[in-house]
Design brief:
Low-confidence stretches: 1-6
Distance between the termini: 22 Å
CATH topology: Rossmann fold
Radius of gyration: 14 Å
Strand content: 15-25%
Helix content: 25-40%
Number of strands: 7
CATH superfamily: NAD(P)-binding Rossmann-like Domain
CATH class: Alpha Beta
Largest sheet: 5 strands, parallel
Number of domains: 1
CATH architecture: 3-Layer(aba) Sandwich
Structural class: alpha/beta
Strand order of the largest sheet: 2-1-5-6-7
Mean pLDDT: 94
Length: 143
């Protein structure tokens, strides 16, 4: 289901129940928004698994970087995919997440990122979808 801007209940549930987040587009550069969001999430106790094909096999924030979602071991328990990519990339990322992440519960797209067709596809599979929002902004109100 796509989150209504007034629906804090779902965001509170996501913030409290999610433990493992795959962040697609996580940059190793400390001045990038993705790095700051990942660092914040880690400080709150979430495991953030970096996904970035340009840095696969390296380490970002003490976690091994994977080239694709499908490279993450199935037993990693990824519950949420946080997308730091352009809107044009969302459909492919959602398709891959639906195909390879057995514990997936949430697709989250960052500020300025939206794909309503991909969101509808995920929603039909029972996945909660949050678009055009940032967990670093939303989660503190619920933790």
């Amino acid at each position: 289901m796509d989150i209504d801007l007034d629906d804090d209940e779902d965001i509170a549930r996501i913030a409290k129940s999610t433990k493992v987040i795959a962040m697609v587009g996580l940059s190793p550069k400390e001045d990038r928004p993705s790095w700051g969001v990942a660092r914040y999430l880690q400080a709150q106790g979430y495991r953030v698994i970096p996904v970035n094909p340009n840095h696969a096999g390296t380490i970002i924030l003490d976690e091994r970087v994977y080239g694709d979602l499908s490279d993450i071991p199935a037993d990693a328990g990824v519950q949420m995919v946080d997308i730091f990519r352009r809107s044009e990339a969302v459909a492919g990322i959602v398709d891959e997440a639906l195909a390879c992440l057995p514990d997936l519960r949430v697709i989250w797209t960052q500020l300025g990122v939206r794909d309503d067709a991909a969101a509808a596809k995920a929603s039909k599979r029972g996945i909660t979808v949050v678009q055009d929002r940032c967990p670093k902004i939303e989660f503190p109100r619920h933790l």
